[in-house]
Amino acid sequence: MHSNRNPRPLSSEERLRRLLRDVRTCHACPDLPLGPNPVLRAAATARLLVVGQAPGIHVHRTGVPWNDASGRRLRMWLGLAPAEFYDEHLVAIIPMGLCYPGSGPRGDRPPRAECAALWFDRLHALLSRVELTLLIGRHAQRYYLGQRCRVSLTETVRAFREYLPEYLPLPHPSGRNNAWLKANPWFTSMVLPELRHRIRRLAGHGVQDGAAAETEIIDIEGQ
Length: 223
Ligand code: SF4
Known about the structure:
Blueprint: H1 12-24, E1 48-51, H2 57-62, H3 69-78, H4 82-85, E2 91-93, E3 103-104, E4 107-108, H5 113-125, E5 132-136, H6 138-145, H7 153-158, E6 167-170, H8 178-183, H9 186-203, H10 210-219
The structure holds iron/sulfur cluster (SF4).
Iron/sulfur cluster binds near residues 26, 97 and 114.
């Protein structure tokens, strides 16, 4: 009987698909309050990587990342329509914690450290076309920037030019950060235009005008 001694090597896309299948069946954390449900998206062609914190309870239930008010504001910041944002061939979405970590007295718990240790190197190795990684919040900034982080998230975001072209640090787009956004108008006038310029180059189209993003900073308040 003929045996195939030299099977065709798998493409990056196929290897990534297999790895994502493994990640999605990860049960490394037995104490998650709602059980494991890793929420991530990626394709080997992705040019933008979005790294947030960890799924909230709504994202856990729907399995769709950034499927909430924070996600709407993030898409406004980026100038991407939902169809573009959720095109995994353009945008990979891999939060610091892949499963809902549960909540404590001060909101959702921090992302589980196990995810990065178990999966991130292997995922990054198959995302070789990523040109820009958005670091949303201090957990992502600490992991990816390490010692290059400034003393606070505000100062790290203010120093965003130092980390380009590879990384761009951002605050979390949650409505809870409206006070921060109002107290730091340079974010809207300096960081968002640079962000949109870079996204426009990566996506090539579909970017809304900057004024829409600026008004959204106010519109989300209270959500
Ligand atoms: S939180 Fe991360 S390491 Fe833990 S079960 Fe989910 S995917 Fe696995």
